[in-house]
Amino acid sequence: MEAAAAINSPIILQVSNGGAAFFAGKSINNKEPKEQASIAGAVAMALHVRQMAKFYGIPVVLHSDHCAKKLLPWFDGMLAANEEYFEKNGEPLFSSHMLDLSEEVDEENISTCVSYLERMNKMKIWLEMEIGITGGEEDGVDNTGMDQNKLYTQPEQIWAVQQALGAVTPNFSIAAAFGNVHGVYKPGNVKLNPGILATHQEYVKEKLGADADERPCIFVFHGGSGSSEEDIATAVKAGVVKMNVDTDTQWTYWEGIRDFYKAKEGYLQTQIGNPDGEDKPNKKFYDPRVWIRKAEETMRERIKKACEDLGNVDTLSKEV
Ligand SMILES: [Zn+2]
Questions:
Q1: Could you tell me if residue 120 is inside a domain?
Q2: What spacing in Å lies between the alpha carbon of 139 and ligand 1's midpoint?
Q3: What tens digit of pLDDT does each residue of 161-210 get?
Q4: Could you tell me the distance, in angstroms and rounded to a whole number, from the CA of residue 65 to the centre of ligand 1?
Q5: Are residues 169 and 62 part of one domain?
């Protein structure tokens, strides 16, 4: 939110299943009842952001990340929280949720998405769905050994999604695989092909008989970390409206702490005694607020860079 405020632009904040459990507290049992910590943590995150966003003066889209079939109790818990919040406030707690049934066969993936979208649409909640698989490893899900063909979607798959979900509402987006992976790997190990999305867009446009300048599909870019500016630009041109940048923000968060430690090493070995004198206190160096703030500052700069790459700078003054 600090990064978004600095560039006068809206931002999407999302919580993953594992991130939500972490937000709740790692010691809370998340198995019985199923996903209770992830549900409570996601709700707490959403309430916290709602409480604080107004101080930054920017719109925030609240979203939840990948939810595979085995995590559906988490999704159900968040939807129940949305319904409760909607009852009281006339709007849902979250703006948007992701369902990721990309490991299931397409028919099951799409039909499950349709039935959830019907429930969500009553509260005008957006659905992000995944088809084709994002490679790599993230949040405890390891797709590193996946069949390479599954990392690239076919236009027929996108058309099937567009037809089925579009019959319910236009409020959905497609995380269509185009060789993207979670995490950052050595150059050459990832063959990103954002051009696939433009092909999908053309195919769907033709099916719909849409105008040449229309982009009927709304795409999402997973595994944005480590991507070239050129690939990002191609993806945005093909209709990508959201990019996830997790690994690079994790890295920059750590970088801030690492650099602070290196710069202040002599002040961080004991509670009392540093290069300025053996009786000097070190509290102002080891206070977590000091070094966590350094992490926030380096992460904020990386988020600003991601927003620049995506064309999300000074967006609030451009709004029509
Ligand atoms: Zn993802």
A1: no
A2: 9
A3: 999 999 999 999 999 999 888 888 877 677 889 999 999 999 999 999 99
A4: 7
A5: no
